């Protein structure tokens, strides 16, 4: 029976399932970071494998989003959504039994693959289920807000699970929720396909995954003194070659796997890069602080999780403040405000004392939240209507690859700097090395923010016509 203007009970039930799964995905992005020290102690994760355990989820999700979107369009959104739930369930179950770093990293990547399939299918399911633009906007808002809420509660939830039970509970808690959602999804979701879906190109899939994998692996090889430098250069060069080959292949294809020509539009390209870099910095700061609180300051997991909640909550607040600010200042000016707040927060984080550091977290969180909310919308607005599917894939990939790349880059830099000026062991990695790395990141992001502001304000009239 219709509830309001054509929105049925089944529509709302569909949105409820999608939101619950997205909430759980949000907790997965942050709760695992709090549990990493316990994991490292239990199964012997070294610094590099700790980085892989932290970022393999986001990297796998980012690398899999585009092929997952193609599969969803071609073989059915409900089918791919259910497959994604199954993959996420299996990966979480295997993670609870992990006894080695390799198994843990592979299961985290499996969770990322499942997440990519869920996200790719969800974007299309909402578009099909909610036909009116107003209802669709509400549905997307509920869906994204559920992720923000999950991210905000993740640190406290992860800390509580580790403190009250075991780090394996971080994965175990997913199983009953995902199991119920799988049953509900079977009942309430309706199947749909894109009759004009592109062909899944195996070469494009391998090239995109190879580019991400090789570039991140090369970054993590840099601080490893036992690995010859030339080996690292070869791996990084291989990643660059794969990335360039991917772009060339897309330009030559009649129906490209991903329409890379979208990046010739200034506002689209700048918004995608700003989202990716800002989310990378934000996620890396959460990762570094959670490890520092426990390994350097001796906090318990639950104490570290509660301490970090203002950073995560302020990000959700930024997502609410951003759209309201955009109505007054416009899209590009609001994005500039977001990167400026994030930049100020990062600079203060490395210069002020511990007593007032929480204020710097509010700057970083609100700024990043504004950028992610307005930047995501800017990506979609800058794309032609016939390229919305490609724009959606770029949008979600920017978030995921930014998160994984940020942890990998700042983590590798922390390790390298710690080896040159720090103290041995994981506590040194997250103390002196991380402090120096955060300072470099703050300066680099400030330079990036200045360039982004010049480009965005230069294109303001074009974007806001």
UniProtKB/TrEMBL annotation:
UniProt keyword list: Cell membrane, Membrane, Transmembrane, Transmembrane helix, Transport
Provide the protein's localization: Cell membrane
Name of the protein: MFS transporter, DHA2 family, multidrug resistance protein
Protein's organism: Amycolatopsis marina
A Pfam family? MFS_1
Q: Name one GO molecular function term.
A: transmembrane transporter activity
Q: Which domain of life is it from?
A: Bacteria
Transcription as a keyword of this entry, yes or no, is no
Question: Main site of residence?
Answer: membrane
- Residue span, Major facilitator superfamily (MFS) profile domain: 14-464
Q: Which GO terms describe its cellular component?
A: plasma membrane
